[in-house]
Hints:
Blueprint: H1 2-19, H2 30-52, H3 57-92
Helix pairs in contact: 1-3, 2-3
Amino acid sequence: ETAVLWCKRLFKEQMNCYKDGRGVNPVIGWHENQIAFFESYTMPLACRLVDTGVFEAEAVRDFVNGVRQNNIRWMIEGQRVVRNMIQEWDTENPSFPASSC
């Protein structure tokens, strides 16, 4: 739920930028880009936590497992979440619907 909350906030921020002519259309590839973010940024970051010495190996394994579970969940539920985000945007911004972008 936390990951989805922040995903929705980022989507709205990027849609506002696109609406104002300051960015690309985030609708295109959003689902796939979130998977790539988990795999190329979040997972390596979680794995490197052990190198910091701040967390014990068991805690790092929990972080890595959490990232893995979030990624799997996104792969399963992400397209539905994206559809919902687009619908929410369209309801809040009828003059600039994401569904027609």
